[in-house]
Write a structure and sequence with these properties.
Layout (H helix, E strand, L loop, with lengths): L1 H27 L4 E8 L8 E9 L8 E7 L4 E3 L5 E5 L10 E10 L6 E11 L8 E9 L6 E9 L2 E8 L5 E7 L6 E4 L3 E7 L4 E10 L6 E9 L5 E9 L9 H39 L7 H9 L1
Antiparallel strand pairs: 1-2, 2-6, 3-5, 3-7, 4-6, 7-8, 9-10, 10-14, 11-13, 11-15, 12-14, 15-16
Length: 308
């Protein structure tokens, strides 16, 4: 009986020590956790960039001996510059450090990315794992095109006046929209070179008009710019161009008007010269007449004078 009790006592001590060792090992083990801390902009936009910041916690534990981290991007994400892999050495941290590691990636979003959720993968492992084993995780990244698209046609031309019809063919509203005629080689705006449209909703259209001078016949392509604010508050510029045929009366309007003005001035000057010349000749003849001696008194006048 005593031997049996002694056996159970020894077994209890062994189990107790084992549990204590296991708990101590568990408390001192390297427990890493990774979260996607931020995404900027949110949502990400096709054809642009997105900044992702990952946070790795538990890196302060010396048993980790450092951390290896790797980004595993798939469509529509890619990395233009830098390394996919990042490494944190175990002796980098001390008791004054935080217990987390922030890792930033700047990723390009493919222009053909679809709206919705796209996944980005990561791999990480504490450096004490020398057998090549690692942990994997995926995170959701929201993708949505906040921009919009436009279609445009020449609505009407009359002399130098050109009217452009612009339709919002995209799915988002174009806020604070402005249309401008920039400086270019073949056309110039006469008077105002920009018009405020305001907000143009998806499916709506507007008409803007400009007075243009065609500087050269070499090309009839008119370039214009559309400025607007997208659905996430970013100011954007869309460059567009259309062929324009101005009527002959408006061709080279600036040059023609200058030449006409100059010709009129010469015409008026010629008239003034002719008038002055004619006046001078008349005045000269008049002075000659005044200098001629008076004729002798007629006989009949003399007789009348003697009678008196």
């Amino acid at each position: 009986m005593k031997r049996k009790n002694l056996f159970w006592l020894i077994m209890g001590l062994v189990l107790g020590l084992t549990s204590m060792n296991f708990a101590a090992a568990e408390s001192n083990s390297c427990n890493l956790e990774v979260t996607l801390l931020s995404q900027d902009p949110y949502p990400a936009m096709p054809g642009s960039y997105v900044d992702l910041v990952f946070q790795v916690t538990g890196v302060q534990n010396p048993q980790c001996e450092g951390v290896n981290f790797e980004l595993v991007p798939t469509f529509p994400f890619s990395l233009d510059e830098g390394e996919y892999e990042r490494s944190l050495e175990g002796d980098t941290w001390n008791e004054n450090n935080n217990n987390y590691w922030l890792i930033n990636y700047k990723l390009r979003v493919d222009e053909d990315a679809l709206d919705g959720i796209s996944e980005i993968g990561i791999k990480y492992a504490p450096k004490y794992l020398s057998d090549g084993s690692e942990y994997t995780q995926t995170f959701d990244v929201e993708v949505e095109d906040a921009r919009t698209t436009f279609d445009a046609v020449i609505q009407e031309t009359s002399g130098s006046e050109v009217s452009i019809a612009i339709a919002n063919s995209g799915k988002n509203t174009a806020n604070s929209m402005i249309v401008k005629i920039p400086e270019q080689e073949y056309f110039s705006a006469s008077g105002t070179d920009g018009q405020m449209v305001g907000n143009l909703e998806s499916g709506d259209y507007t008409i803007v008009s400009f007075s243009l001078n065609q500087i050269s016949k070499d090309d009839d392509t008119l370039r214009f710019e559309i400025y607007y604010t997208d659905s996430i508050g970013e100011r954007r510029i869309v460059n567009m161009e259309l062929p324009v045929e101005l009527t002959s009366t408006s061709m080279f309007d600036s040059t023609t008007s200058t030449q006409t003005s100059s010709g009129m001035q010469w015409y008026i000057l010629a008239i003034v010269v002719v008038v002055l010349g004619a006046g001078f000749l008349i005045f000269k003849e008049y002075k000659k007449e005044k200098k001629k001696p008076s004729k002798e008194t007629p006989e009949w006048a003399k007789s009348e004078k003697e009678k008196k």
